[in-house]
Here is the input.
Amino acid sequence: MTDGLRISLQLYEDKFHEQLLAFQLPPEQAEFTALPAESLSEALRAPDKLAVVIAEAELAAGFFILHTGGRIAEFYSNYSEAALVRAFLVDSACQGRGIAKAAMALLPAFVCNHLPQVREIVLTVNERNLAALALYLHSGFYDHGLRRTGGKGPQRILQYALNNGA
Here is the structure.
């Protein structure tokens, strides 16, 4: 499914701006994440957030935010060496080709390269978002039973331990 894809993770650059603002999701996905039009500007202003583009060749196909520091304590109490993945999505026009799976495979190395202090990647996923849950578990995230209640209902907190030389 991912044969021939040239997927990379890149820190946000202005060349992606218009593409990201045009992203759309079907309603059954939009209820679980924020589109770049809703989350990008705040991510660019916050020193504890990295805006990351999932690029196919040189076009934006997806987006997410890596959030570090004390402000993620509401999501994950052991936050000091963790990065929280937020607002992960692939544009509806690019779905069904293995882009999300390829991006998740690239995520650990990307985090180690750009956030060398981080020892663990965490994310929250709504329990009703079965497609995302399956993607994350298949990508090596573990469910150790941590839960939180989000604005859209119960969420699982998934964890991925990094082996980055520590």
In short: The domain at 7-161 is CATH 3.40.630.30 (Aminopeptidase).
